[in-house]
Amino acid sequence: MNLGKESETLEFKKTTGEIKAAMVSIAAILNKHGVGTLYFGVKPNGDVTGQEVSESSLRDVSRNIYESIKPQIYPAINEVILEGKHLIKIEFSGDHAPYSATGRYYLRTADEDREVTPDELKEFFGANKHRGKWELYKSGATATQINKSTIKRFWERAVSAGRLPRGRYTCPIILNRFGLIKDDKLTNAGETLFGNTHPVTLKAAVFATDEKLTFLDMKLFEDNVLNLMNTAEDYIVKNIRWRSEITGFQREEVPEIPLAVIREVLANGFAHSIYNARTYHEICIHPGMISIYSPGEYASPHRPEEYIEGNFQSEIRNPLIAKMLFLCKSIEQFGSGFKRIDSLCKDAGIKYSYENVSNGFKFILYRPHIISDISNVTCNVTYGENEALNKTEQAILAVLKQNPAISREDMAERVSKTVRTVQRALVSLSGKGYIRRVGAKKNSTWEVLKK
Fold first, then answer.
1. Using omega within 30 degrees of 0 as the cis cutoff, is the peptide bond preceding 71 cis?
2. Total structural domains within the chain
3. Does one domain contain both 238 and 348?
4. 8, 70, 114, 403: most buried by Cβ count inside 10 Å?
5. Residue 451 · residue 433 · CB < 8 Å
6. What are the pLDDT digits (tens) for 51-67?
7. How far is it, in rounded angstroms, from Cα 193 to Cα 226?
8. Does residue 371 fall inside a structural domain?
9. Does residue 266 lie within any of the structural domains?
10. Residues 92 and 42 reside in one and the same domain
11. In which element (H, E) is residue 140 found?
12. Per-residue confidence at 387, pLDDT binned at 50, 70, 90?
């Protein structure tokens, strides 16, 4: 039997001989998430091996937790039997972080425990003082005050994305499965995601200049997060400039700022904001820029530049809300948001900046200065065979080798480029003799000619 992979809230130890390391894991998980589970009798890969369990061994575990973890916690320590093998299961939680193990402090990163200095710990808790617990509290909304169509759209997207198993789902099943309901009340996370009580407010406006002086349009939207994400995108899309462009033999409407950039900025803003803050989500569209503001100061000890240049784990303020947005493919949970935005903006020639203020985080996308309403660009370039491929062409060719029927939109998401760039690369690959289109127009696929 296998219990799956270790995570930021789940730890496996082969035997109680690893009791000291177990105390470190408990402290690290408590400091990061406030709740977790640890098993003795399971290998790190999740294979259940079992171990000898007695009243004495259970007492030893309890005594070690009492003596090692400060402030004191009161975990549930039980013997469990899985397929005839005996395990010790420890379920623990705590609301009085920071916690230490034998006088030292640790934080959980993926499935590892990292020792931190008091200054690092102070910085972490300063950035994450609002995280996690708020989501689990009961809201004032009852279990019936939900938007059923929103929940249905959620599970359809999650199943389609392959992040939720296929099966029969109902609103109660989703709410109970993900802990979004308690005692017939929606949790704060449940109401924020799916409530019909207008739990979240979004202000949106179009201004005549780059200052907040003369507005041409102003709207106030109140809805749940999943609906507001669509509303926010629609508002921006309707108020930016588009142009017609012909690439190869196809004509398409091209936005001045790629939709993938807009979606990524919006999704991360809604995922990491503080929902009991004093300010609202806000979109301001100016002639020279679009600013997208979310309540709550920046939540990570790593600067955005570090995420762009390196590979850091994402610091998540609202773990449950972020999980639900991940399942329906609105965000990724791998610290890739800034990296994707940076890549997409560079690809499209879009400049951006950000401001981390005391009450929130503002992301600014700068609009191109000169864009005509209709600009026809025709590409009539002939490529010779066996020409070298650039990085984008190489990436797209690799994707097509995996899935010749993939759409341009999905290719763009896979390689973090715009659909327009993908189309140009496809035209180039075709001209160079690497691929060709086969089949009827509506049901055609790509055939890779050169491996």
1. yes
2. 3
3. yes
4. 8
5. no
6. 999 999 999 999 999 99
7. 6
8. no
9. yes
10. yes
11. strand 138-142
12. low
Q: What is the pLDDT of residues 78-93, one digit of tens each?
A: 999 999 999 999 999 8
| Residue 13 near residue 90, CB atoms below 8 Å | no
Work out whether strand 69-70 and strand 76-82 pair parallel, antiparallel, or are unpaired. Answer: unpaired
* 101, 68 contact by CB (below 8 A): yes
CA–CA separation, 381 vs 17, rounded Å? 68
In a domain, 3, yes or no: no
278 and 350 within one domain: yes
pLDDT tens per residue across span 146-201: 999 999 999 999 999 999 999 999 999 999 999 999 999 999 999 999 999 999 99
Mean of the per-residue pLDDT values for the chain? 85
Confidence of residue 328 (pLDDT cuts 50, 70, 90): very high
397 and 250 within one domain: no
Cα separation values, 296 from 82, 129, 269, 277, 400, Å:
44, 10, 10, 7, 41
Band the pLDDT of 382: cuts 50, 70, 90: very low
Residue finishing a domain among 127, 162, 184:
127
* Residue finishing a domain among 96, 127, 158: 127
Asked if the structure places residue 149 within a domain, the reply is no
Measure the CA–CA gap between 16 and 20, rounded to whole angstroms.
9
Q: What is the rounded CA–CA span in Å between residue 41 and residue 252?
A: 59
Question: Taking the mean position of all CA atoms in its chain, how far away is CA 200?
Answer: 19
Distance in angstroms (rounded) separating the CA atoms of residues 52 and 47: 16
Question: What single string gives the DSSP state of each residue in 304-333?
Answer: HHHHHHS-PPPP-SSHHHHHHHHHTTS--S
For residues 151 and 159, the answer to whether their CB atoms sit within 8 Å is no
Domain assignment of residue 214, given as a range: 200-302+335-366
Place of tokens 């327009």: 420
**CATH code of the domain in which 360 resides:** 3.30.565.60
Angle in degrees, 0-180, between the axes of helices 408-415 and 391-402, rounded to the nearest 10:
120
List the CATH number of the domain containing 21: 3.30.950.30
pTM of the model: 0.61
Above 90 in pLDDT, residue 121? no
Residues 401-418, mean pLDDT to the nearest whole number: 86
